[in-house]
Amino acid sequence: MNNRVVKEQLLKIIDNKKLSHTYMFEGDTIETLSKYSKFFALHIFGDTERNQMLVESGNHPDLYYLSTKETSIKKEQIEELVRRMNQKPIESDYKVYIIEQFEKLTPQAENSVLKFLEEPPEKTIAILLTINKSGILPTIHSRSQHISIQGEDEDRINALPQLSEAERTTVNVLSLNTTHVLELDDKFSTIRNEVINFSNRWIHDHPLTLIDMKRMLDLCDDRRDQVMLLALISGFVRQTLHHAIGLEDFKPFETHMPEGNDVHPAKLTRILEEIQEANRLLTFNVNPMLVFEGMVIGAKG
Questions:
Q1: Which of 136, 155, 174 is the last residue of a domain?
Q2: 238/299 Cα distance (integer angstroms)
Q3: 145-148/124-130 β-pairing
Q4: Regions of the chain with pLDDT less than 70
């Protein structure tokens, strides 16, 4: 959904007095999700100069923003949140709490917040921010109103100062998960370079493509890495396809694109179909090596 439309949707929810107890904002860039959650909270309180100042400074007494630099959000942090939210509003009619990177909750913390979501105090609103919704309990999903928010270019680029300009372009154009890229650290650059090498050889039917594929896949620690790998490969192949038909409107990679008699739209389209099928198989927990081998071999027709 276009982010301008998202803002209109959030304001309409407030204007129509149809606020739910729980919202889940999902996207690929936590900075953008944070920005929109505060926008929503501000307008729930009332868009006054005083509320703007209090929300922006992090001092609004009716807003509790929970975030951590640690790898997990623990039960004790949720218990403190619940304690704060059980108090009556001071400045506004509502109390709002925001949990950044909700997927970080430990199982114990998730169970604690689930109980609170099931029986929240009157006029208490939860905004759960996530960049990896697959790890969240289905019961929490079922109690949430889901709103998808695409990461904004400036937020995505500013979140990755350690990357080169070319690498930031790749992340931005392909809308990769910035937090995931940050967690990969230097390994992201290695994976990206391997993707360029592998994709070039795959498109040209090089005999060592399967060896390249295994080396590339060995860099991936889990399914999230493998999904990102497919997004990178798909981006390279799509850019090659656009280049082959004379379009320069899609350029996630600032590098020379494959050319020659063996590079043509029909072949590239077939490769993209195999990548799409590989994505589908990964969601069904098929062995990654079998998925990627099948993808490479299947593209030959």
A1: 155
A2: 15
A3: unpaired
A4: 1, 301
Same domain flag for 244 and 260: yes
Q: How far apart are CA 238 and CA 232, in angstroms?
A: 10
Q: What pLDDT was estimated at residue 135? A: 81
The angle subtended at Cα 151 by Cα 179 and Cα 219, nearest 5°, is 35
CA–CA dist 81, 252 (Å, integer): 41
Is residue 181 a contact partner of residue 171, using CB atoms and an 8 Å limit?
Answer: yes
What is each CA distance from 286 to 180, 223, 230, 281, 294, in whole angstroms? Answer: 22, 10, 15, 6, 11
> Could you report the per-residue pLDDT of 37-59, keeping only the tens digit for each?
999 999 999 999 999 999 999 99
Q: For residues 92 and 197, what is the distance between their CA atoms, to the nearest angstrom?
A: 57
What pLDDT is recorded for position 12?
96
26 and 112 inside one domain: yes
Specify the pLDDT at position 301: 66
For the whole model, what pTM was predicted? 0.79
- One domain for residues 165 and 179: yes
Q: What are phi and psi of 13, to 5 degrees?
A: -60, -45
Cα→Cα distances 240→29, 133, 248, 298, Å: 27, 31, 10, 19
Distance CA 74, CA 198 (A): 41
Rg over alpha carbons for the chain, rounded to the nearest Å, is: 22
Rounded distance, CA 49 to CA 122, Å? 26
Domain span including residue 193: 160-298
